[in-house]
Amino acid sequence: MNRWFVLMIALFVIPLLLGAEAPANTAQIKLEVKNDYETNEIVIRAKVTSSLSILTVKASFNDTEKDLVYRPSIQQWELWSSLAVLKPGIQPIVIKATDASGNTHTYTGSYTVPTHTVQLKSPVAHQFFNKSVTADVYTQPEVGLFLEDHYGVNQPGEPYRILPIATGGSYIREEIPLRSERVDTSLYDKEVFRPWNQSPVNLIFQAMHQYKSGPLGRRDVPVYVDTSHRLQILHSVPGKILDYDQSRVLYITNKKQLYLKYLTTGETKHVAEMRYITTATLTPKGCIYKVADSGVRAPAYEWTEAGTTQKLSYIPEIKGGYALYKQDGLYKLRNLTTSKVEWTIRGDAVVQFFYYGKVVYWLDNYFYSFQNGQTTRLFEQAGVFNFIATSTNKIVYTVKNAQTLEYELYHSDYYYRKKKLGAMGNYEVPKPHTDYEYNENWIAYKLPSPGFSYSLPRNLHVINSEGQSKQITFHKEEVDTVIEGVNYYGDIIFSDKTGSSYIASYTRPTPVLISKSASIIKFMNDKIYSAIGNSIMEVNQIPDSTLLSHEYKNHVFTLTYSGPVKQGSGSQGIQVRMERTGEQLKFKAVWGGNALRIELLEPMLGDAEIVVPHHATSDMKGIPASSYDTYWNYDPYGYSGTVLGLSLYDPLYAFSALSNVSVSLYQITPFGEKFIDRKLTTSLGGVHFFVQEKGYYKYRIEKEGYVDMEEEVYIGVGELYKAFNLTRE
């Protein structure tokens, strides 16, 4: 053997025998940390490049260590964590990656939380409130909490309303009570201002430095408010609900992160990230969601619980385990469990499909049904625009009359026993599931007002299982509605143009208000559920009698109901109070027949507020007749006499109004002084008297610790108000 060849081998072997290490595997770590103030989270992303597989990536920060999750779509490891628990200022962060051989690789960086940023623990975005707002906010300078609606207007002429809470200091940790606005909630009154009906409320948390002008930090949190007592919260999630069923909830956080939560186990799965998602619908294996692309038709994506995501070339309609879509000029029905296309038909057909795969369609002037591979021709009918079929071989459909040019609604079974339900006008084509709905033996549909064929369908009707029709009786006429659904028992859920939801039926044709907020309503297990914001709620029992109207006449305030009523458990909460002074007026409440009468025992002097709790009146079964605590403001014109009002203060107090000051009124007559009345001032320092005769009067003011005061006044016709600062003894 050549000695030079042997020497080369020896030189190669010697280092191995001496235990020299092979070059170690190295990894490169790039770190990105940012604060997302919309979701109130810190976002940590690490891109790890290594020749070996990376098994785990951890982040050590804020005295804790947390795992990052690998996101294949962005090829980075990611962690979203609450900003509210972080220390302000520049803080260190250490990223530790572990590869398949057990080697660890570290990277040290930093992140910054601005000192004056408002840190928000509660509420979360899209949270639903029906009683109070849980505010848990802190910052270094002072904090003020404001509440305004999405459009920046609460009442006409008012840009925003400040919540009555204490401000100042670095913390707000308290329950802030909510109440219904002072609005007339009589049904379907178009002039009524209904706050927060379709849009989220915007809670604004703002940090203000006590020595500098201008805000230092501001957090806007969209939430939902509805004080309906019909809604009982069952489940809540940290985001806005897009769809739900009996065991799962799809929700999105500020239109950025889509999640699926399992209600039975509490497990949550991440579906999509950093996308503007418009809609999402549950499927047996996961969900299908749509994403808004600028200037392009919104694409759809199908996500499975196994973690796979695929972009679809079509926009499907989903019912239970099936999806219907149009592709290549054909309608296709796909089984979402098996992923197989089970049925196709020409794209000019009118199609309806069912949760279990049955299809009813209209094509070339005939109705057909398809199920389990079998196609059956049902009956002939020309000119069908749309229809709703049931599982029991019945169809409701619309056609256009060639002579009158009106759209007409028909009801037929599969043997073509046809019945005309009514003419629906000729303004636009009536829409199924909006202008008419069908559920087995119940049909809900809308007809225009008599003589107005060019108007939109408005008046709501319902047909029972015997074919008898009845109109839903609105308090106001010409109320446009959208039918949301009909259950097996004939209950109709519908909404008006404000987004408020109602329920009515053939046996109970007067609508009952459920909610003033736009919601996702579903019938499940013969019960009604509603999703608003981040919460799923069960709709409590519906009363047989509900509020119809109210009026004030001859010192009597009368509330009229749709059926017999009786005194409810909240009757002691009824109040009548003067707007100017806050003084409570005495009254007697009487329930009888279909009405509650509030009979005033003293005159209503100027503007007064009448408060009736939702459970002050009930139907004969004891179910509250109203969904909301209601407030009415009245200014009773036409009374004869004069109002004498006094306001008493002590300017040395920060809150200068003096309560519980004794004020006695006397009438001065030729025969001496005549005692009229004695009252105590309210918490606002006000008191008033009603005087029926013109002339001279004297009032005497007495309060312990203050100098007594007397004054004579002439009282004519109208109102006389005076304010005084009392002198301490």
Please specify the SSE layout and strand pairing:
Elements: H1 3-17, E1 27-36, E2 41-50, E3 54-61, E4 64-67, E5 69-71, E6 76-82, E7 89-99, E8 104-113, E9 119-122, E10 128-129, E11 132-138, E12 142-149, E13 161-162, E14 171-177, E15 201-208, E16 215-225, E17 231-236, E18 240-244, E19 248-253, E20 257-262, E21 268-273, E22 277-283, E23 286-291, E24 300-304, E25 309-312, E26 317-319, E27 322-327, E28 330-335, E29 341-346, E30 350-353, E31 359-363, E32 366-371, E33 374-380, E34 384-389, E35 394-400, E36 407-413, E37 418-423, E38 436-439, E39 442-447, E40 459-463, E41 469-471, E42 481-486, E43 492-496, E44 501-504, E45 512-515, E46 520-524, E47 527-532, E48 535-539, E49 547-553, E50 556-561, E51 566-567, E52 575-578, E53 587-592, E54 595-600, E55 608-612, E56 617-618, E57 630-634, E58 642-649, E59 662-669, E60 672-680, E61 686-691, E62 695-702, E63 709-715, E64 718-725
Parallel strand pairs: 10-16, 58-64
Antiparallel strand pairs: 1-2, 2-6, 3-4, 3-7, 5-6, 7-8, 9-11, 11-14, 12-13, 12-15, 15-16, 17-48, 18-19, 19-20, 20-21, 22-23, 23-24, 24-25, 26-27, 27-28, 28-29, 30-31, 31-32, 32-33, 34-35, 35-36, 36-37, 38-39, 39-40, 40-41, 42-43, 43-44, 44-45, 46-47, 47-48, 49-50, 50-54, 51-56, 52-55, 53-54, ...
